[in-house]
């Protein structure tokens, strides 16, 4: 029987995860581009609806990854180690790609009137149908869980829910400052470049840590 709160990672691991999640949030990608575009085109309500939709999609991805990885852990600790090594290589590729190609921020301020529920489903669909999100969470979450953890399923699910819970208020802040944030990012390519290097450094460090401790 697992001890109480066995789904909670230790404090240093949780802090590292939160910091990594924040770097992920500020790194421009499809979800941020859609949120900013819908906010500028449809107002703050449309932006918040988009944040809710992408959050729901991320929740599905993270929980699916959590239970899938847990099944792998139950089947073989060696297979889990292989997954972590493959994940480390993928994270290293993401770091290199961020330096080579930079961030992706595409905002088209099209004035389209769409119902709030339809906007929620739009955000949900864009996030859920992105295969890169699936691959990312399958490789990202295991970096913060040990194969011999007393409750790996609970820890993975906790980390996934924490990621969504952390991104919702940050997403609302993004919506509230959409016009300023969009203008600042597009007018200051050096800021975007600094985010690219921060992202690359973080995931390069994750990859190195896994590859050096896998043995």
From TrEMBL:
Domain of life where this protein originates: Bacteria
Keyword Transmembrane helix attributed: yes
Coiled-coil zones: none
Locations listed in the record: Cell membrane
Primary location class: membrane
Annotated organism of origin: Methylobacterium isbiliense
Keyword Cell membrane recorded: yes
Transmembrane segments: 14-34, 46-73, 79-99, 120-144, 156-178, 190-211
Membrane topology, record value: Multi-pass membrane protein
Name of the molecule in the record: Homoserine/homoserine lactone efflux protein
UniProt keyword list: Cell membrane, Membrane, Transmembrane, Transmembrane helix
């Amino acid at each position: 029987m697992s001890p109480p709160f066995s789904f909670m990672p230790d404090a240093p691991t949780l802090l590292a995860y939160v910091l990594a999640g924040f770097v992920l949030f500020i790194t421009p990608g499809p979800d941020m581009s859609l949120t900013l575009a819908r906010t500028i085109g449809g107002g703050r309500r449309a932006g918040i609806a988009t944040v809710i939709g992408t959050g729901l999609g991320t929740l599905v991805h993270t929980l699916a990854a959590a239970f899938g990885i847990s099944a792998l852990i139950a089947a073989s600790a060696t297979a889990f180690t292989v997954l972590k090594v493959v994940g480390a290589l993928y994270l290293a590729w993401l770091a290199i790609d961020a330096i080579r190609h930079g961030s992706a921020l595409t905002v088209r301020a099209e004035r389209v009137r769409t119902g709030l529920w339809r906007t929620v489903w739009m955000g949900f669909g864009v996030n859920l149908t992105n295969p890169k999100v699936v691959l990312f969470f399958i490789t990202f979450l295991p970096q913060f869980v040990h194969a011999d953890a007393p409750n790996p399923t609970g820890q993975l699910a906790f980390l996934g829910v924490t990621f969504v819970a952390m991104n919702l208020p940050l997403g609302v802040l993004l919506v509230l400052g959409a016009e300023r944030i969009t203008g600042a990012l597009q007018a200051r390519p050096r800021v975007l470049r600094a985010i690219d290097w921060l992202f690359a450094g973080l995931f390069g460090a994750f990859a190195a840590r896994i590859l050096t401790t896998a043995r």
